[in-house]
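Archive entry: two folds, one per protein. Generate the first.
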Amino acid sequence: MQRYFIDSNVPESQKISIGIPHYHHIINVMRHVSGDQLIFVFNAGETYIVTIEEVEKETISCHLTERLEKTVELPIDVTLACGLPKGDKLDLIVQKTTELGIFSIQPFEAERSIVKWDEKKETKKRQRLQKIAQEAAEQSHRVHVPEILPLLTSKKLLLELAQYTHVFIADEEEAKINEQKVFKKLLNTMKINDKLLIITGPEGGLSRNEVTSYIEKGAISGSLGPRILRTETAPLYAMAAISYEFEL
């Protein structure tokens, strides 16, 4: 069943009317009709199977049929601080890490980031990325849509580290010296509901100055295996490892 995120609380009447923008996708794209069932995710992640009762012009009347209790969310909150990469790589990172269970994504301008966002560009980029995250969350049947957080500079990112239980820097220099067990040891120490921040760099990686400043604020650095990973590969590797550790 197709899943939709509804920006409202569960109605006490167990009935709900849906309009734009979901109407177009439900009726014109998916070709649903009266009697068909969908999955609606309401605020706070409450999830229900709903049945379409009536289709009118730009409005769909539905009733809530069954509450779904199963959750597919990771037991820890993982935020990715991603140094701005070139091209459309961030689109891919957002889509795939959402499918893999990321909680939120924090873009930041690393010292080696070639790409720069001005205020106007940031607004459009975040809107686009948020849409990608929502579509990926719907496709992967999640109950949480990862938030694309406002862009930070590398220095401002430092001020955010204190809010996380653990901060891990995916550092290619550590891979070169064969330091491969730090990430595994970190995951083994984490507890349910912990908040993990993973910092990955852009093309060219993080500068030594950045890594040192993050470590001084309590972060730990390590590699993601013995090979040097591309900027769009490292976050996917990390999320897959986290899923294996906590879900498989």
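Generate the second and append.
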Amino acid sequence: MPAPRPAPGPYLRSPVGLGRAAVALLGLVIAVDLFAVYADFVLYDVTADLMDGAAGGAVTRRLDDAETLNSVAGGIQSGALVTCAIVYLCWFVRVRANAGVFDPGEQSMKPWWAIGGWFVPFVNLWYPRRVTLEIWDASRPVGARRSHALVNIWWTLWLLSLFSDRLGITDYGKTEAADQINAAAYQLMISDGLDIAAAALAILVVLGLTRMQHEKALAGPGVPVGL
């Protein structure tokens, strides 16, 4: 009776395709956020005129148009964010699996945290950063200086954008007077600006990790590769 074949061990899979898709969708998020900043500014501008005493049908129509534009921008933002998040998480799971091949001892967290860490309340404030740092350390070239500056700055901006967005949306939902809408529009502009910066740095993180893993897979000896 032949001996059973051993179960296949872990192997590398290229993150390049998913990395490119994630970068493209992060670029889309930036473009949509720029449109949202414009919509926020239009709302901020018309409410500033109302605060200065402007009245009449023309300014009322401007306010209605500004609120409609802001609502459309919010809807497009939600769609772009969900699409980007799906592809980004697929890429993130791929690079986490590769990191487990490169250096299993560097990965202190179970692979499923690559997804679960983003959704579990409270721990999602630091677990994704921790997983990213462990992936980064396992993927960096042998002998390279260990630097987490890019990941730390990206994660800080991401958290700031989340808190700022929550504050802006909450304030906007409670507004009635022109000065309140004006303040909420200003807060939303800050939030969208922070999201643009966070998305730009996320692109650098994706490009950096993808490049390091691709180069390490090509250069490293004896690592099973399923490219």
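Annotation attached to the second fold: The mean pLDDT is 88. The chain has six helices and no strands.
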